Amino acid sequence: MSQPQSARVPTSALTLDYPFSLGVYERYEQAQEAVDFLSDHEFPVQNCLIVGTELKQVERVTGRLTYGKVATGGLVSGIWLGLFVGVVMSLFGSGSTFSIIASTMLFGAVFGLVWALAGYAATRGRRDFTSVSQVVATRYEVLVEHKFAQQGRELLTTMNTPHRPDDV
Q1: What is the pLDDT of residue 39?
Q2: 28 and 51 housed in the same domain
Q3: How far apart are CA 49 and CA 31, in angstroms?
Q4: Which domain holds residue 103?
Q5: Which residues pair with 143 in a beta bridge?
Q6: Rg of the chain's alpha carbons, rounded to an integer?
Q7: Backbone angles phi, psi at 15, to 5 degrees
Q8: Same-domain status, 122 and 87
Q9: How much is the pLDDT for 123?
Q10: Residue 113: which of 69, 163, 148, 53 has the closest Cα?
Q11: How far apart are CA 9 and CA 23, in angstroms?
């Protein structure tokens, strides 16, 4: 005989059984402020989620990439790696600490330089720039477990920050 189904239990901390929207905000800080407002008014905020929607990737180009910049970056990172390996080896090895660290730094510099230039040459000029990128949301929606939706909406109507309930 099969067991009767019990109430649904969330499978993770990032889910709600029956989520309802409390509001949609243009900035994360606004959604965070709404949840903080609810918390300040004794609302059970452990039943809330802030969900970023309409994701987009933003990439900011920070500069031009040249063989000289690639070589410098590879050289410096190789020296740092060599320094780290040299310090570790000098702790457990015998011999002159200075010669161990200097030799690993030299080897690291050569390795880093060659590795960076080989990687850059392999791109064949298809990406001659440096950049940073981030995935950001266009809108942020505050969701709450269905049994707390009415209470949450009533509280948020007393808040000064504008929100659009049920705007999905």
Answers
A1: 93
A2: yes
A3: 10
A4: 66-127
A5: 21, 49
A6: 27
A7: -135, 155
A8: yes
A9: 87
A10: 69
A11: 24
Number of domains the chain contains? 2
User: E strands within 27-168?
Assistant: 48-64, 129-145
The low-confidence residues of the chain, meaning pLDDT below 70, are 1-12, 161-168
Residue 145 lies in a domain: yes
Nearest to 134 by CA among 24, 36, 28: 28
92 and 117 both lie in a single domain: yes
87's tokens: 């310090």
Instruction: Tell me the pLDDT tens digit for each residue of 136-145.
Output: 999 999 999 9
The two structure tokens encoding residue 26: 């243009």
Closest alpha carbon to 159 in 6, 36, 8, 17: 36
Length of the chain (residues): 168
Tell me what pLDDT residue 60 has: 95
Is there a single domain that holds both residue 39 and residue 79? Answer: no
